[in-house]
Write a structure and sequence with these properties.
By secondary structure, the protein is α+β, with helices and mostly antiparallel strands. The protein is built from four helices and three strands. It has a three-stranded antiparallel β-sheet. A hairpin with a 5-residue loop joins strand 2 and strand 3. The protein starts with a helix and ends in a 15-residue tail after the last helix. It binds copper (II) ion.
């Protein structure tokens, strides 16, 4: 009987922790290689799908400014999500195959890979 009580109490405790799940927003900025408004749409959509609070990429400065809940996602997830749609970030390089599928006008200058 005692075990059941403990189980019930811990169940309620975990539910209340879950319900009070704290959010802790943080904003970071980093470089993402790209060219135009079409690139901007893809980059911002990738961040939105990941679940950031806000994510904008500046076409002129090539800087992404992202606000996200650090309890849900990390900076690495954001870099990876952007690279997954074909754009190199200052931390994660997009797969060559994905990059080559971008429209010609969107194929930004990539930094040369040292062999
Ligand atoms: Cu483009």
């Amino acid at each position: 009987m005692k075990a059941v009580k403990i189980l019930i109490i811990s169940l309620f405790a975990s539910i209340s922790i879950w319900a009070n799940h704290p959010t802790h927003f943080e904003t970071i900025s980093f470089k993402v290689f790209g060219n135009c408004e079409m690139c901007q749409e893809r980059i911002e959509k990738a961040m939105k799908l990941l679940g950031v609070k806000s994510g904008v990429w500046n076409v002129d400065t090539k800087i992404a400014t992202v606000t996200f809940d650090i309890h849900s996602i990390g900076p690495d997830d954001i870099h990876k999500a952007i690279a997954a749609v074909g754009y190199d970030t200052e931390q994660v390089r997009a797969d060559d195959k994905v990059y080559k599928k971008l429209p010609g006008c969107c194929q930004y200058e990539r930094e040369k890979i040292k062999k």
